[in-house]
Amino acid sequence: MTDTSLSGLDRLRAALAASPLPGAAPLLHQVDDYIAPRLANLDAPLLAVVGGSTGSGKSTLVNGVLHEEVTTSGVIRPTTRQPSLIAHPSDA
After folding, report:
1. With 0-12 CB in 10 A as exposed, 13-18 as middle and 19+ as buried, what is 37?
2. CA pair distance 41, 38, nearest whole angstrom
3. d(C-alpha 51, C-alpha 57), whole Å
4. In this predicted model, what pLDDT tens digit does every residue of 63-88 receive, in sequence order?
5. N or C: the chain end with fewer CB closer than 10 Å?
Protein backbone atom coordinates (compact mmCIF):
# COMPACT_ATOMS: atom_id res chain seq x y z
CA MET A 1 0.00 0.00 0.00
CA THR A 2 1.36 3.41 -0.87
CA ASP A 3 1.19 6.47 1.35
CA THR A 4 -0.83 8.21 -1.37
CA SER A 5 -3.45 5.43 -1.39
CA LEU A 6 -3.68 5.41 2.37
CA SER A 7 -3.99 9.17 2.70
CA GLY A 8 -6.67 9.23 -0.01
CA LEU A 9 -8.60 6.50 1.75
CA ASP A 10 -8.18 8.28 5.09
CA ARG A 11 -9.61 11.47 3.54
CA LEU A 12 -12.53 9.55 2.07
CA ARG A 13 -13.21 7.86 5.40
CA ALA A 14 -13.10 11.19 7.27
CA ALA A 15 -15.50 12.77 4.76
CA LEU A 16 -17.93 9.86 5.11
CA ALA A 17 -17.72 9.97 8.91
CA ALA A 18 -18.53 13.69 8.90
CA SER A 19 -21.31 13.45 6.32
CA PRO A 20 -24.92 13.97 7.49
CA LEU A 21 -26.26 12.04 4.47
CA PRO A 22 -28.10 8.80 5.35
CA GLY A 23 -26.13 6.77 2.80
CA ALA A 24 -22.77 7.72 4.32
CA ALA A 25 -22.87 5.19 7.21
CA PRO A 26 -23.16 2.09 4.98
CA LEU A 27 -20.37 3.44 2.78
CA LEU A 28 -18.21 4.01 5.85
CA HIS A 29 -18.72 0.35 6.80
CA GLN A 30 -17.70 -0.68 3.27
CA VAL A 31 -14.49 1.34 3.59
CA ASP A 32 -13.66 -0.19 6.98
CA ASP A 33 -14.74 -3.77 6.31
CA TYR A 34 -13.88 -4.20 2.64
CA ILE A 35 -11.81 -1.52 0.92
CA ALA A 36 -9.17 -0.85 3.60
CA PRO A 37 -8.30 -4.54 4.20
CA ARG A 38 -8.01 -5.18 0.45
CA LEU A 39 -5.89 -2.09 -0.06
CA ALA A 40 -3.58 -3.41 2.66
CA ASN A 41 -3.37 -6.79 0.84
CA LEU A 42 -3.35 -6.18 -2.89
CA ASP A 43 -3.19 -9.93 -3.61
CA ALA A 44 -6.75 -10.38 -2.34
CA PRO A 45 -9.40 -10.65 -5.10
CA LEU A 46 -11.55 -7.56 -5.63
CA LEU A 47 -15.32 -7.93 -5.65
CA ALA A 48 -17.36 -5.23 -7.36
CA VAL A 49 -21.14 -5.15 -7.63
CA VAL A 50 -22.74 -3.02 -10.33
CA GLY A 51 -26.31 -2.13 -9.50
CA GLY A 52 -28.94 0.22 -10.86
CA SER A 53 -32.37 0.48 -12.36
CA THR A 54 -33.48 -1.38 -15.47
CA GLY A 55 -31.98 -0.01 -18.66
CA SER A 56 -29.50 2.26 -16.87
CA GLY A 57 -26.44 0.90 -18.72
CA LYS A 58 -24.91 -1.51 -16.21
CA SER A 59 -24.02 -4.10 -18.85
CA THR A 60 -22.66 -1.42 -21.16
CA LEU A 61 -20.47 -0.10 -18.33
CA VAL A 62 -19.11 -3.56 -17.44
CA ASN A 63 -18.46 -4.43 -21.09
CA GLY A 64 -16.74 -1.09 -21.62
CA VAL A 65 -14.50 -1.38 -18.56
CA LEU A 66 -13.45 -4.92 -19.50
CA HIS A 67 -13.13 -4.12 -23.24
CA GLU A 68 -15.05 -7.31 -23.94
CA GLU A 69 -18.71 -8.33 -24.22
CA VAL A 70 -19.20 -10.35 -21.04
CA THR A 71 -22.86 -9.45 -20.50
CA THR A 72 -25.45 -9.62 -23.26
CA SER A 73 -28.59 -7.52 -23.44
CA GLY A 74 -31.92 -9.07 -24.43
CA VAL A 75 -33.47 -8.64 -27.88
CA ILE A 76 -36.87 -7.37 -26.75
CA ARG A 77 -35.54 -4.66 -24.45
CA PRO A 78 -31.98 -3.62 -23.74
CA THR A 79 -31.98 -5.63 -20.52
CA THR A 80 -29.70 -8.39 -19.33
CA ARG A 81 -31.96 -11.31 -18.47
CA GLN A 82 -29.80 -12.99 -15.83
CA PRO A 83 -27.16 -12.03 -13.27
CA SER A 84 -23.54 -12.28 -14.35
CA LEU A 85 -20.53 -13.35 -12.32
CA ILE A 86 -17.25 -12.49 -14.00
CA ALA A 87 -14.01 -13.75 -12.47
CA HIS A 88 -10.41 -14.06 -13.53
CA PRO A 89 -9.46 -17.76 -13.87
CA SER A 90 -6.73 -17.36 -11.23
CA ASP A 91 -9.37 -16.25 -8.69
CA ALA A 92 -11.72 -19.17 -9.34
Report:
1. exposed
2. 5
3. 10
4. 888 888 888 776 666 677 777 888 87
5. C
